[in-house]
Design the sequence.
DNA sequence: CTGGAAGTACGACGGCTGTCAAACTTCGAT
DNA sequence: ATCGAAGTTTGACAGCCGTCGTACTTCCAG
């Protein structure tokens, strides 16, 4: 049961084939950065609908794809829910310190939300 | 002679007022990232014409402005030459690890130029 | 004081990208 | 079997950003 690839999700790229350009293009968008930060804070994988995003469904899909192709997240299905996981270790090996630096800066800049949402709410 | 501001250059922003968004928008462009990396490698400040950039003069000016407004570089005049310096410490204090991570990744990705240009050549 | 070197300012243009609505697909529950 | 929940796909549109050429400014050298 090693190769339990789900045909519903395109194959994930090898992180070593990803360019810095691609990564920065992924992280420059506020919505995508929000996704990454929420994932970083979460204690569990999060389904697409579990994020606090102020964009339409189709736009969200687009952003998840960009993140996946940039090697930042891994996606897999559970029922009808598409789950998202941060590829922390692999990505960190390819781009040392980058993810942490961005998430740190993002947290420092993000207004301390009075609402504790964004936790590992898997519905 | 503390405030020897040169009217020819707009005031430099306080790094604490700069947003992560602004920084990433600055670093997402390959030309600007090249400038930053060359500056990081240089042992001395570099005048605008001293960089290896494959864009027109006016485009280069544009990129230098973006970097200055993002708090990444400081500019000052020496004769008719506009010099550029990395604001390493200030920037590093505001965005810990970010600059190093990007420069590191950029170097790893950049084909090992057989030509040793880009050094602190101040003409 | 005149010529040139070093950059800047100003439009203009083209392409990319984030956004959405609408139609479609797939799975699970009833 | 059917209906709804969860996302995706497609196409269209608007705005932004990098690029350039041209004209302009400022300083140094002779």
Sequence:
């Amino acid at each position: 049961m090693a190769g339990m690839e789900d045909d519903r999700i395109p194959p994930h790229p090898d992180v070593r084939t990803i360019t810095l350009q691609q990564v920065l293009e992924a992280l420059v968008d506020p919505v995508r950065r929000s996704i990454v930060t929420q994932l970083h804070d979460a204690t569990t994988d999060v389904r697409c609908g579990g994020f606090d995003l102020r964009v339409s469904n189709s736009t969200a899909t687009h952003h998840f794809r960009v993140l996946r192709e940039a090697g930042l997240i891994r996606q897999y299905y559970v029922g009808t829910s598409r789950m998202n996981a941060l590829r922390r270790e692999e990505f960190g090996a390819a781009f040392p310190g980058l993810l942490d630096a961005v998430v740190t800066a993002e947290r420092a800049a993000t207004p301390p939300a009075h609402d504790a949402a964004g936790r590992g709410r898997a519905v």
In short: Confidence is low (pLDDT under 50) at residues 115-123 of chain A. Residues 8, 25, 29, 31, 55-59, 62-63, 77, 79-80 of chain A lie near DNA strand C (CB under 10 Å from a C1').
